[in-house]
Amino acid sequence: MGKVMAYQTISQFFNQHDDITQLVVGVFDYNGVLRGKRMPIAKLSSLLESGFKMPLSIIQTDIWGRDIDNSPLLFETGDADGQIALIDRTPLRLVWMAEPTALLIGSFVDDEGAPLALCPRGRLAEMQARFGDKSQAICAGVEMEFHLLSDERPAPAASLATGTISPSGDTLSAHQLDDYDNLFADINTHLDAQDIKLDTITSELGRGQYEITFAPKNDLVTLADDILIFKYLIKGLAKSYGIRASFMAKPLMSEAGNGMHVHASLVDKAGQNLFHDDSDTGTKTLHHAVAGILQFMKASTLILAPHMNSYRRLVPSSHAPTKICWGDDNRSASVRIPASSPQARRLEYRSAGADCQPYLLLAILAYSMAEGIDGALSAPDPVTGNAYDHDYDSLPVEMSEAMQIYATSTAIQQALGEPLYSYYLATKRQEWTRFAEHVSDFEYHSLSHNI
């Protein structure tokens, strides 16, 4: 690499944790899955000096880790390696591993250390820079829902305290949190070490469903890193307790689905909220941002809902907004302006599932807000009452429809750039095809005897 990094944060960690004997190094792919290698601590000095390499094609693999058919990253290039630079953040101790192990994450870069155009993290940095160039920043926090499930069958996990399974969901129940006190205590300990700040952990509507709220920060790239690190952390910790943490949009058909809600405001270099003007409705800038989000939401559904399962969540009257509209303190709208003090004025982007790739989600959000603000787009009137009952345009109801709309959207192509736009679409098409080729047991038994 042409650019040598200091890696002060990583170096300081290993100076203070000389018991580490193993490293896991990797990158997050288009599904947010960590793809990487395990290596001994003796490799640390060479990692810090020159990074590491993996096939470029690994970032585009499908959800099963398979190559994408006819990808230009494969045989056209000889399945060439790409250079990966480490991200200088505190390594994550993987306490569930047999040996003392730490995780280092990286990103594909060119010879000068600049992000490659196929890299979602790099694209998010570019979208963030549209505001930085104007001495502004999107200040964002995230509410993310997940399920704790049995590791043996599709069902809620039993309480770690009592061994029983809750007969129903219990929204905002302190007792439900007590059932997994040790797990949540472990999460807090390790997130503190990562300097990942949480606002809350709560129980949610579904059985075995919980929500974690990330405190707002002015750096979307670091926020997305935090989300992916958290997912990896809780999956590993849950496994050590004999249960499974899942961010599937709809893991259990009888229970509420898992969303990822982004709360966003716009601040200047002095930290002043540019959505706030002492009025009851907020500034024109806020309404331009809302208009931009609404304009590009339908075309970006494949990012908000990236899997076949995602569309089981996006159904009417399900706490997952399906109508493209906005409203004041209205959770049935896809964009909500929460009730707050004027100083805390913000928008809430509500339709994305917890299964989406956070680099891509936040890149689309930043692009949409920037286009709305720069173009002074006008937002429609806010919805009143139940948005599901209104005749607004709706998000696609199936993944095939979302792919078709994405594939013809010049705006999304502009937002993601090439080749990321095309590579992501190819990945989703391959995944959709494989799911579509499988007949479920329910489908088979329902039809085979009588049809």
What is the CATH architecture annotation of the largest domain? Answer: 2-Layer Sandwich
Main sheet properties: 8 strands, mixed
Estimated share of beta-strand residues: 15-25%
Topology-level CATH name of the largest domain: Creatine Kinase, Chain A, domain 2
Structural class: alpha+beta
Assigned CATH class of the largest domain:
Alpha Beta
**N- to C-terminal separation?**
62 Å
Shape: globular
Architecture overview:
The protein has 451 residues and is of the alpha+beta class. It has two domains: 8-113, Roll (Ubiquitin-like (UB roll)), CATH 3.10.20; 127-442, Creatine Kinase, Chain A, domain 2 (2-Layer Sandwich), CATH 3.30.590. The protein is built from 14 helices and 14 strands. Strands 7, 8, 9, 10, 11, 12, 13 and 14 form an eight-stranded mixed β-sheet that branches. Strands 1, 2, 3, 4, 5 and 6 form a six-stranded mixed β-sheet that branches. The longest helix has 21 residues, at 220-240. The chain is globular and about 60 Å long. The chain starts with 7 loop residues before the first helix and ends with a helix.
Index terms:
Creatine Kinase, Chain A, domain 2; 8-stranded mixed sheet; Ubiquitin-like (UB roll); 451 residues; 14 strands; globular; 6-stranded mixed sheet; 2 domains; alpha+beta
